[in-house]
Fold these 2 entries.
Entry 1:
Amino acid sequence: MKRLLLTSLLLLAIISSMLAGSLGYYSLSLDLATGSVSAKEFIFLGEGTESFQTDALIAPSEKMSWPFKVKNYDQSAVTQTGLQYQLTITVTASKGKEAIEPLEVRILNSEGQVLNSLTGIGVFTVNSSFPLQANGQFHDYSLEIRWPEKGSNDIGYAGRNYGNTITVSATATQTPPKEG
């Protein structure tokens, strides 16, 4: 009986010691490193669109030019990723009017090369990119609206019942990083 009582007391001492933590296991926590991430600058702006006109008048054999640019920087920062972009030019009949079907709309680069065009109404695009660089970049464009002189049917589009609306929009996305 003494043995049972002694064993019980010893078992009770071990259990109470474990609960009290004196026979616990070692534990250690370390802060090995701290880091953080911030979003990169992503800048894509248009400039010079004040050259675009509303209700501009045009006749056969005339043309007008609306220059503009896109760029990847502002006064305080340059985009920190490469980016690719698409210019979308949409030509529709103006509200309440019929389209001037012989009207040509072309987009030219800074060297005067025609990048894309259409006659009448429709949609066309131009794709380009800005590779990642420390310095800001820009691309100059010119939207050219021409009514080539084609002959006797031009008179059929004369007057205020005819007009085209031209819209230029741009979308930019980050260029995927190169593997490796």
Entry 2:
Amino acid sequence: MGLLIAAACVSVAGCDTAEDDSAQTESFTLTFAAAVNGAPFSCAQTFTGVGTTSLDAQFSDLKMYVHDVRLVSADGKETALALTADNAWQTEHVALLDFEDATGTCINGNADTRTTIQGTAPAGEYTGVKFKVGVPFAQNHADPATAKAPLTSTVMQWGWQAGYKFLRMDTATFSIHLGSTGCEGEVGAITGCARENRPEIALEGAPSTSVITFDVGALLGGSDLTLSHAGHDDHSAHGCMSGADDTRCAPVFERLGLDLASGQPAGPQSAFSIKAAQ
């Protein structure tokens, strides 16, 4: 399982012409997958040894939004992947990845899953990929009543934070709901947020021959999954709700490469990895 990038030549002139290569584009399919400590993610399995207390964990949800996807060439040049809007899983601005399939303990969705991102980019050789987890500011804080799919997912809308959950991961005892916090203004008219909380993922490896894995076990590696309620009676009672003063978020943010206090990228992340395709 992982992130595979397949390319096919598509240009106005066609691949068998002598047109300038700079006028040609390629279509790319980025295929994502999830794992738990190296084992394929499943809604119907109990995973052992999760977190600092080696808890048995069953998952009820796993989704994330991705945007600002860039393909990276050997000289470090970044080329934007133009997302292909499909009126279901992608707009030209953001894509939704959905790993739960409504089986087993997964209760926050349906049988439909989405593990690909599709788009186009100039033809060329790429040796890496970059992307951000989250929803761009303009779309994150637009009026959800007028949103288009995939921003119509009600379980990803975060009304009390006036935006969306960029990453949603739930177990019976611990959840991670990542999103922008400290936002000012009314829903549909947010003027800014103190903490954007958008991880930026950078991975080196030939996209066409490599796989990328989002490992939830690695994300939870520094977390005590028994610290769910811990005497709290607010929105942060069930794990990490992206609060700047929530100590349960500290190990999660570190593994996403985010600074908890500022919500800005700071240091390497360890939840995503790239490996040669099998």
